[in-house]
Amino acid sequence: MPRTIKNWSRLQRFTPRNYAEPATVDQVVAAVNTARGRSERIRVAGNLHSFSEIVRTDDTLISLKAMNGLIDADVESGLVRVRAGTSIHQLSRQLDALGLALPNLGDIDVQSIAGAAATGTHGTGENYGNISAQIRAVQLVTAAGEVVEIDEDDPSALKAARVSLGTLGVITALTLQCVPAFRLDRLDLPRPVNETLSQIDDLAANFDHYEFYVLPYSDLALQKRINRTDAAAEPMPAVKRFANDVLAENVALGAIVNAGKVAPNAIPPLARTMAKFFSPARRLDKSFDAFSTVRMVRFNELEYAIPRQHLAEAVERVLAVIQEHQFPVNFPIEVRVGQADDASLLSTAAGRDTGYISVHTFKGMEYEPYFHAVETIMDGYEGRPHWGKMNWQTADRLAGRYDGWNEFQLVRSEFDPEGAFTNDYIERILGPVVTSRIQ
Ligand SMILES: Cc1cc2nc3c(=O)[nH]c(=O)nc-3n(C[C@H](O)[C@H](O)[C@H](O)COP(=O)(O)OP(=O)(O)OC[C@H]3O[C@@H](n4cnc5c(N)ncnc54)[C@H](O)[C@@H]3O)c2cc1C
């Protein structure tokens, strides 16, 4: 019975000819061999939280959702081995029980660890890298059905495998470098947009994990000033947390974005109303609880990584283009920072301190004109799209934006010479596999 696959935002829907949900490495090998025996291409699914067509396939889809949980852990060194389909939510709790944590996370925790790493998923913090930077080894099933272990003995392959876009094979396990468990002291503070933009460098330097949201058509930004602390957590009771964080945020946002969908002209006054929901709040919580939020309002998203020094100017230009075209934008713009990443060839932060700008539109609302306009601005800064989010880039345009581009293509052609792990999206943004590079 064919199975229709939907991503989280519901924009991507497809029906692969064959669907496999292996529970063991041997079953992954069997699924790969079966697909290759039929000359089918393969894509791998984590938890389907990418917005782009990165997972889509008409041939074989292999989901890693049945392969989850810790395999082993060395608490002293902080090195843990984990099955690829483990969700960050599950992993964080299993690590916490051992007194460990991942040093930085994005703003949700439902992605699989392999899926998050594969697209360069990141949080914020000018001294912190993205999730893939913690990977020390990768177990992979290649298109030839071989199980290989990639580690520091082959630095080029490891740098490619950390952010692989699912193009090297099926990742079945990862070894991660964790840190001792820690808490976060998080202050959410509404401040004027102009002040927030002019203080961007100081604020990013003063807080371990600094970010802010700007709501177009309002004058307010919501800053998230987050520092790591040794203090004990003061967790809110679960019911209060649900009411405060989940219901208040999602219901208010849901009501306003729904109203904006029905009456786009009302968005500027609605935005000013919504800004009133930005209020100061303080939390002291376990790191993974403070990093992550629950997203109940579905949206589509485009995100660009640009050289950090242009961040404030680029945000100003995005706000200006929204005003100029009166785009009906009823979702905040999210602005984050990240450390230059030397661990992964295709990390969006590879080789440069990075500023991230994310723009969103409510599910079902037109996103193309707004996202295209933002993408044009980001092209001017040699912007790199988040691999898991919407974009209209091509390999020709992106190749020059990554020093490690050719090195990645070389590794790709060695692991997958026939292009088994591709789809139309991968061919558009990475190009076809170039086997002629092999000597
Ligand atoms: C509400 C929401 C909030 C988000 N917040 C953030 C954020 O804060 N920061 C950020 O950077 N991103 C964020 N994202 C994007 C998200 O983190 C990425 O798209 C991530 O890749 C999704 O993980 P997944 O497990 O759902 O993977 P999928 O979307 O299922 O797959 C993503 C990629 O990983 C590959 N893949 C998955 N598993 C394997 C495997 N075992 N072996 C080989 N390849 C594999 C797939 O082939 C595909 O190329 C958010 C997305 C949503 C919907």
Poorly predicted sequence stretches spanning 5 or more consecutive residues? none
| First-to-last CA distance | 44 Å
| Content-based structural category | alpha+beta
CATH architecture tag of the domain at 183-385: 3-Layer(aba) Sandwich
CATH-assigned fold name of the domain at 183-385 = Vanillyl-alcohol Oxidase, Chain A, domain 3
Mean pLDDT: 93
Strand tally is 20
Cross-sheet strand order for the largest sheet:
16-13-15-14-18-19-17-20
Helix content: 25-40%
The distinct bound ligands, ions and cofactors come out as: flavin-adenine dinucleotide
CATH-assigned homologous superfamily of the domain at 183-385: FAD-linked oxidases, C-terminal domain
CATH class of the domain at 183-385: Alpha Beta
Number of helices: 14
Characterize the largest beta sheet: strand count, sense, and whether it forms a barrel. Answer: 8 strands, antiparallel
Q: What's the Cα radius of gyration?
A: 21 Å
Strand content: 15-25%
